[in-house]
Amino acid sequence: MTKSTLRVLIVDDVAAVRSYLKQILVSLGVPDILEAADGAEAASLYDRLQPQLVFLDIQLPDINGKELLRQFKSINKSSHIVMVSAFSSVENLRDSIAAGANAFVVKPFSVKRISHLVQPYLN
After folding, report:
1. How many CA within 13 A on the CB side of residue 21?
2. In the predicted model, what is the mean pLDDT of the chain?
3. Whole-angstrom Cα distance, residue 93 to residue 113?
4. Distance CA 7, CA 79 (A)
């Protein structure tokens, strides 16, 4: 996958979090960034546009992000999904990795952490 084909989906119910993450991704040169505020919107975008990289909040208003992770992985096993949560419990981490998450990020996250996760997809 080249930089010009990388499509990223940000799923978070907090607009400020989506905006901050989008700013980071834009600064890294990600060309195609999608946003969803809830699980239903995320599932629709994921299904139609098949992003290669997803930042997925665990706490969503309509569905648990871990359930959405399982749905996404059943559609496309090779998509890379980074779980995002303000709650860094061992249970959240373990459940996310067991369900197929590629990484786990705790809010508030740093530009350096996001850059470290995205860089391999940009080279």
Report:
1. 31
2. 94
3. 16
4. 11
